[in-house]
Amino acid sequence: MGNLAHQPAAHGALADLHERYRKVRATSEAICAPLQVEDHVIQSMPDVSPPKWHLAHVSWFFEAFLLKPYLPGYRTPDPAFDHLFNSYYETHGTPFPRARRGLLSRPGVAEVYRFRAYVDQAMAELLGRPPAEHREEIARRVELGLQHEQQHQELLLMDIKHILAQNPLQPVYRADLQAPPVVAPQRLRWFDYAGGVVAIGHGGEAFAYDCETPRHREFVEDFQLAERLVTNGEYLAFIADGGYARTELWLSDGWAQVQQGDWHAPLYWQRDYDAWHEMTLAGLRPLDLQAPVCHISYYEADAYARWAGARLPREAEWELAAAGQPHQGNFLESDHLQPVASPPAGNAPAQLFGDAWEWTASAYLPYPGFRPLPGSLGEYNGKFMSGQMVLRGGCCATPASHIRATYRNFFPPAARWPFAGLRLARDR
């Protein structure tokens, strides 16, 4: 959750904020527009939420943290929604169990969309006539809610992909996605970085989540960073060399996951005779050997790096390399919804932003001096700082306006359904 103490009092005028609100809300519904009604209600594994639940939850957020406390006379269309669509805010109420969200056949899809419209109408009223004494707090919480919904737009696409991939019919989410570029194979180059004491973390006035703060000093040794993400073709060489059968390459917990999950390749890869294919949001496609490998766990990324004679970057190293670089890349708006091959890098590493989240060697822990917010809005990040690894840079499903160099994403090390890949690092 964004740290309200590190956000500006308002992100422009409330009228401008309302316009952003409409655009962000419309994007969520556009993501779900290609789905059939039945697609909205499936939960393909405990980590996946039905698309219908995502649409309702982000609306619940605005209702719970803006409309109920700040819009006089607001009445919820159904008090049960406060239980059904509360994700994990224990100090606010009793969340419905995450692993059972797929059992919620009611409210129906149409009713969820009516709930969204009801919330949107009430938010228009609140932003049009905000109580003067709460104007700044309302602006901060709206910004927070928009960033939250953008996170769920990426989660929607992750979950939709996993849902459709379980269907033996291999359904296509969208047949009109942008075609990937054709890029010739490139020999991997390395960029050198001098170590020393560096400043890491968010320290400006723009929005940031509390886990990105405070800005602080860290010592970094001299290191090298690969110019681009590891490709599917390079990862195939790891598979061909017995990478999934060589215990010396794996962390103990990772090897246990390989055995338990019968892992032999990244999630969504399929081998038909001698040809590899990959399930994408455009359906089953031949594996693009020059595109970044994706849908691998931290354990797989770590094993590949060890096999390649390198390692994963630490998050401070990654941020040092990304600081000051333009936030350009293959994002949600690029409309590939799949990592694509990168042209040769220029004077800085390519693909630092977009394409695939990059696993780092850093555990998701609080920065020195981190303090979560009091109350329900402090539950978003701090209580998850255990058993997770940090990922950096965004992916092909991340809205472009949502990412920044200090952004810290996090997932358990065995997670494979995020759009996650890897970049190599090594000591100098």
Provide a descriptive summary of the structure in words.
There is one protein chain. β5 and β6 form a beta hairpin. The chain has a four-stranded mixed sheet. The protein has helices at 14-32, 51-70, 81-84, 109-128, 135-165, 232-240, 252-261, 298-307, 315-322, and strands at 190-193, 196-200, 216-220, 223-226, 269-272, 275-280, 283-286, 357-363, 389-392, 409-411, 420-421, 425-427. With 428 residues, it is of the alpha+beta class. It folds into two domains: 4-165, Four Helix Bundle (Hemerythrin (Met), subunit A) (Up-down Bundle), CATH 1.20.120; 190-427, paralog of FGE (formylglycine-generating enzyme), CATH 3.90.1580. Helix content is 31%, strand content 12%. Mean pLDDT is 94; it is low at 1-11. The chain contains nine helices and twelve strands.
Write the layout of secondary structure elements.
Blueprint: H1 14-32, H2 51-70, H3 81-84, H4 109-128, H5 135-165, E1 190-193, E2 196-200, E3 216-220, E4 223-226, H6 232-240, H7 252-261, E5 269-272, E6 275-280, E7 283-286, H8 298-307, H9 315-322, E8 357-363, E9 389-392, E10 409-411, E11 420-421, E12 425-427
Parallel strand pairs: 8-11
Antiparallel strand pairs: 1-4, 2-3, 4-12, 5-6, 6-7, 8-9, 9-10
Short description:
It contains nine helices and twelve strands. It has 428 residues and is of the alpha+beta class. It has a four-stranded mixed β-sheet with strand order 10-9-8-11.
